[in-house]
Amino acid sequence: MVNLSERPRVLVTGGAGYVGSHVCKALSAAGFLPVVFDNLSRGHRRAVRWGPLEVGDIRDPAALARVLTRHRPVGALHFAAFAYVGESVENPLSYYDNNVAGTLTLLNALTLFKVRALVFSSTCAIFGQPGTPVISEDLPKNPINPYGRTKLMVEAALTDAGEAGDLRWVALRYFNAAGSDPDLEVGEDHDPEPHLIPRVLMAARGRVGALDIFGSDYPTPDGTCLRDYVHVCDLADAHVAALNRLLDGGASGVFNLGAERPISVLEVIAAAERVTGLGVPVRQADRRPGDPPKLVADSARARSELDFRPRFAAIEEMVEHAWRWQQTNA
């Protein structure tokens, strides 16, 4: 077994959060030592299990310099972002400060310390309402909220920085992250919890009131929105593949990550009822402004260039893993 101190180190900003912590587990399994840099404002100290935790903020260049000096990582994975759409509308300047200004501070620090490989956690929110049910990477980008706009701005900064210097980068645009680690070592733990699957399960357990269904009159088979759910462990595997691509000298690029299967709100509820054996109380609510009827990824580029092959593509698997995590940890 390779001594931990001998493993190549990777800086993981926001590594105490939902996706970041799952990626840290995958990095460790792939032979890396993840060094988590997180201010713990939204992440959890207990989720840092596969390498050291350095508490700090990406907007603090001195803190970044100390960590980069101490660990000398071979690459970086960047998850440290605010990610609630509604919050971004209510408080947009905090999103531009953290997501954009913070990333620029990070990029300057990585440049100074000659860290040439960066994997960025992006989002399908950069597309806005694309006007087509299946979304490829090359469709026009027209985000409809500050959260999506901040992510698109970072992608633009990465493009320009890469063209001007030695930085090579990959932006992974994931769709609806779902599920939890099947081994129950980490899982989804937001406060408040905005995501559909954990909220469905919380409603089944009586931990929240009736689940609001925002619109039941969409032009879809059952009238509710269709979304593309991708298991968080499959996302983690894609991040490791993207990092290896860059460390092997591969080109920069953008990739959509989804299971390519449209799942409706009612189908998620039905899956939860099958998995748990419990009923899910629901309440009909008005449509939310800006919710498209259907968003599904075209992940062909990721399959071709990152060998992206979801291991947990069935919605029942995602719900089951999330359910087991909730039963054990909440």
How would you describe the overall organization of this protein?
- The protein is α/β, with parallel strands linked by helices.
- The chain is globular.
- The strands form 3 sheets. The chain has a 7-stranded parallel β-sheet, with helices on both faces. Strands 6, 8, 10, 12 and 14 form a 5-stranded mixed β-sheet that branches. A two-stranded parallel ribbon has the order 9-13.
- It contains 10 helices and 14 strands.
- The model has no long low-confidence stretch (mean pLDDT 94).
- The two termini are 35 Å apart.
Q: Topology of this protein?
A:
Elements: E1 9-13, H1 18-29, E2 33-38, E3 53-55, H2 61-71, E4 75-78, H3 85-90, H4 92-112, E5 117-123, E6 134-135, H5 146-164, E7 168-174, E8 176-178, H6 196-204, E9 211-214, E10 226-231, H7 232-247, E11 253-257, E12 262-264, H8 265-276, E13 282-285, E14 294-297, H9 300-306, H10 315-329
Parallel strand pairs: 1-2, 1-4, 2-3, 4-5, 5-7, 6-14, 7-11, 8-10, 9-13, 10-14
Antiparallel strand pairs: 10-12
Helix pairs in contact: 1-7, 2-4, 4-5, 6-8, 6-10, 8-10
